[in-house]
Amino acid sequence: MSKTYETVIGLEVHVELATKTKIFCGCSTAFGGAPNSHTCPVCTGMPGSLPVLNKQVVEYAMAVGLATNCTITQYCKFDRKNYFYPDNPQNYQISQLYLPICRSGGVEIETAAGKKTIGIHEIHMEEDAGKLVHDEWEDVSIVDYNRSGVPLIEIVSEPDMRSAEEVIAYLEKLRLIIQYLGASDCKLNEGSMRADVNLSVREAGAAEFGTRTEMKNLNSFKAIARAIEGERARQIELIEEGKKVIQETRRWDDNKESSHAMRSKEDAQDYRYFPEPDLVPVVISDEWIERVKARQPEMRDEKLIRYQDEFGLPKYDAEILTGDKSFADLFEAAAAICGKPKKVSNWIMTETIRLLKENEMDPDQIRFSPEHLAKLVDLADAGSVTNTVAKEVFEKVFKEDIDPEAYVKEKGLLTVNDEGALRETVAKVIAENPQSVEDYHNGKEKAIGFLVGQTMKAMKGKANPALVNQILKELL
């Protein structure tokens, strides 16, 4: 009888915070930039330079902690984690081991199996390392310190996840919480959110955990899901063959869909942690926590309910609109201007999403204003422009953020409701299409659709379709 195995997964999620400057110096945190141009003596680890803590980092960490139901450590400090690696200029990293800023939280996730709470062991603040660039041609590695000292929080979960589906649901939940807080854009492809997966397998029903491995280099949800499936299969195979799983760090290669060992897994003592001597402890008062709490925005779960209750939107619409903060902000602002929430929702859910896909853009790259979307909704709703024209105008709004009202007037795109002009065109279309007229008189209702189409074509799509239909029936 074959054994059944259970996968046990815990995550370490690193999130780059959206501060303008680094954690311990005034250098820019902007993504990109010529190598080593966002640097100074502090973030390149020059002797005698001293770190100064960026207050905004503490506030973002507290905000994420509060939103994930953690307890804030009111007396917290930094520690020095010693390791020697070329992208780590001081030969140590300033992190938090003994007194991390947030502890014992959790978030609720929902999968096909139902709802479940994933525990958060701790969240700590730390600085990022630089970036090694391997030049195959010259056979050298060069280092860019722009990222060195960029502020991170590391969110360490409990080993509460049992499948790739739960892992993705947890990451999606964290990403939305952090984006809503404005603490990070959480773009996996730019490295502003990175997840390391700790995974072990055990026989179903066993009390002890198996030996875990840690997988790095995961920069998309799809890669994470594939890595989990791949590593689970690899460990089960080893156990079935009577071999031992070795505790180690592995690097996932998404192209080959396999992982390989990088180094045997270190324990905390390998890093010779000790309290950071150059930084004073951070003392967080009750008032400071209250101030951060008072600034917390409305979160996705609350918006989801409100969009259905207040705006009468279907659950499906509400889920898509709240699934990205850019959509939610655009929707609320445009709906407040024109007072037509369902119609605004329709334009975002159909045309906006279609154009984003066609142009391979993310929702946070939307450039048009809610005012212009609201004006377009009003024009289409009043029948001032036909649906076809409205869609064409919207493409211009999407690309160039034009004022739809002014554009429609300037280009003469307003719907023609002038009965005289329409009658003339309809009569001409009837005269030119005797076969369709005969088909209609012989009971073929579809023939009228063709005649409506010809009339709309003659009117360059600007005729009122209802009026065209009415006149056609009358004249026929």
From TrEMBL:
The keyword Ubl conjugation does not apply. It catalyses: L-aspartyl-tRNA(Asn) + L-glutamine + ATP + H2O = L-asparaginyl-tRNA(Asn) + L-glutamate + ADP + phosphate + 2 H(+); L-glutamyl-tRNA(Gln) + L-glutamine + ATP + H2O = L-glutaminyl-tRNA(Gln) + L-glutamate + ADP + phosphate + H(+). SUPFAM superfamilies: GatB/YqeY motif (SSF89095), Glutamine synthetase/guanido kinase (SSF55931). Belongs to the GatB/GatE family. GatB subfamily. One of its GO terms (biological process) is glutaminyl-tRNAGln biosynthesis via transamidation. InterPro entries: Asn/Gln-tRNA_amidoTrfase_suB/E, Asn/Gln-tRNA_Trfase_suB/E_cat, Asn/Gln_amidotransferase, Asn/Gln_tRNA_amidoTrase-B-like, GatB, GatB_C_1, GatB_Yqey_C_2, Gln-tRNA_amidoTrfase_suB_CS. This is Aspartyl/glutamyl-tRNA(Asn/Gln) amidotransferase subunit B. Residues 329-476 form the Asn/Gln amidotransferase domain. The gene is gatB. It comes from Roseburia hominis (strain DSM 16839 / JCM 17582 / NCIMB 14029 / A2-183). The keyword DNA-binding does not apply. HAMAP family: GatB. It comes from the Bacteria. Its EC number is 6.3.5.-.
